[in-house]
Amino acid sequence: MSNAYATHSAVALAEPGCSGLAVGDREVMLSPGQLFGFDNSFRHSAWNGGTTTRIIISTYTTHPFLMAEEVVELEKVEEAHALLRRAVGGALREGKRLRERILR
Q1: Which of 34, 69, 70, 84 has the highest Cβ tally under 10 A?
Q2: Across residues 63-90, what is the average pLDDT?
């Protein structure tokens, strides 16, 4: 959980009355076409008790109450995280290539 982000979502596909979202002490049932948003600093969870696939389309933005300096620092953290993901991904791909060469 983080107070740095807000979540904005649209329910694209859900079996009415079978999928839900809890944020803090509030709970709502989801239905197709529904839009919702919440502050990620609250404990949240979602579930699908239906027999069909549930599809939620979400975007994440910096929290609207962050100060400009906080957004700048958060962007630095996100950039470092992206560099780390690329480095780990490259190492995993190289490890897979080496393994394939060894097994030939």
Answers
A1: 34
A2: 83
**What's this model's pTM, rounded to 2 decimal places?**
0.60
Strands 44-48 and 5-13: unpaired
Beta bridge partner(s), residue 59:
8
**DSSP per-residue letters across the chain:** --TTEEEEEEEEE--TTTEEEEETTEEEEE-TT-EEEEETTS-EEEEE-SSS--EEEEEEEE-TT--HHHHHHHHHHHHHHHHHHHHHHHHHHHHHHHHHHHH-
Query: Residue 25 and residue 98: Cα distance in Å, rounded?
Result: 51
The pLDDT tens digits for 93-103 are: 888 888 888 88
Q: Structural domain boundaries of the chain?
A: 1-65, 67-104
> Which CA distances in Å does 39 have to 1, 25, 51, 66?
9, 13, 29, 12
